[in-house]
Fold this sequence. Notes:
Chain B: Residues 2-236 form the ABC transporter domain. The complex is a heterodimer of chains A (217) and B (242). In chain A, 81% of the residues lie in helices and 0% in strands. Chain A is mainly α and 217 residues long. The longest helix of chain A has 33 residues, at 11-43. Chain A is flat. Chain B is of the alpha/beta class and 242 residues long. Chain B has two domains: 2-78 and 156-240, P-loop containing nucleotide triphosphate hydrolases (Rossmann fold); 88-154, no CATH class. In chain B, the strands form two sheets. A six-stranded mixed β-sheet of chain B has the order 6-7-8-3-9-10, with helices on both faces. A four-stranded antiparallel β-sheet of chain B has the order 2-1-4-5, covered by helices on one side. In chain B, strand 9 (205-210) and strand 10 (213-218) form a beta hairpin. The termini of chain B are far apart. The A-B interface holds A 114, 116-117, 119-127, 130, 134-135, 138-139, 142, 217 and B 48, 50, 73-74, 76-77, 79-81, 83, 85, 87-91, 100-101, 104-105, 135, 146, 149-150, 153.
Amino acid sequence: MPDFSILIEYFDVYMEGFINTIYSSIIALIGSFVLGTLIAIFRISSIKPLRWAGTVYVEFIRNIPLLLVVFVFFYGLPSLGITLSGFVCGTIGLTVYTATFIAEAIRAGIMSVPKGQTEAAQSSGLTYVQTMRYVVLPQALKIVIPPLSNQFINLVKNTSVLGVIAGLDLMYFGDQVASKTYATFDTYIFVALFYLVMTLPLSYMALHLERRLAKNG
Amino acid sequence: MILFRQVEKHYGNFHVLKDINLQIEQGEVVVVVGPSGSGKSTMLRCINRLETITSGELTVNNITVNDKKTEINKLRRDIGMVFQHFNLYPHKKVIDNITLAPIKVLGLTKQEAEKTAMYYLEKVGIGEKADQYPAQLSGGQQQRVAIARGLAMKPQVMLFDEPTSALDPEMVGEVLDVMKTLANEGMTMVVVTHEMGFAREVADRVVFMDKGHIIEEATPAEFFSNPREERARLFLNRVLNH
């Protein structure tokens, strides 16, 4: 049994980290979804420079460790005279990194919508943007929900990189607690439990959504 | 109304359309027949620029289809299209399939668009299916919805790209009946099909294509009883005697 007195004594500390992790997750989730969709649209665009830019972005960022992407913002920006907190840098890094995976998932989703859908929409006079918005994206989203929910669960867990750059997240405060109690193992068990409180419901929701979508075909 | 003049089209090295010259007048029903791969569908799809031509001139209502200055979306409003695989929007109810373009393109209100949609759904005989999803309908019903969707834009011409080829045999008739009604009401129609019965009965003119060329243009009576070209004769032998 882990020592629950640690949890009770440092509950406020844990909670502060927990709340910050939720904030960071939500901001990065929305940010990476918007950015990822945009990049996905770039990547399937008929305009070559856009396609090229999208590909370069995805291939570079997703093939670098997340920690290094975050370091770029945390240690790189100050050399340009911009200093942001660990929380902000970590969340931006996370957004930029996760966006690549979301872009790939959405791109695959868009590509899987039959070409006839676009042709039907365009032959009725809808513009490219209208075709995307009313016909292609709603169908693509259905297909990408399972891979996207995976990415979102990864995102929540990946917020732990904030701990390395004093990002005031759950991992950061977990480190603080551990250095005070010296009960390293017990301390991190509670950290893990706090992560599970966030990720298990997400997992469950993903499963539920997947089943519902499967039913509706 | 639709005019092809010396139209050529290449897909890379493949020469799909060769020196196409064709004029289609308002109110005319033109049926395009020919072996698979003869370029019929490609020719049809050039009319609303789902395919682009390589050279030559193609105009609809005196507007050059492939001119960069042409607002293609504006031109497409007036050209309805029905596809082999229906291409209904699976995530939208039947009624919303039909009202999407009238609302977003023509700027109709939802009520106006739904009223028009219901009128055309009744016309194709499936008013009661308005609130269902495409997947709940049979192929023939889906294709009739697709026709209603095209008509709801009140186009000046309707293009049909093998509208019955993906249907079970017992559903072909219901779709052809709708098309016959349209033809009798004076709709300008260009129909690519393998339904020779339909061509014979409904067409004002039959266009026979082979290997990217228009080989023969004639009234159905002439074409079916006395085709001038050898290739047309061979084709008719194959499709009529089986």
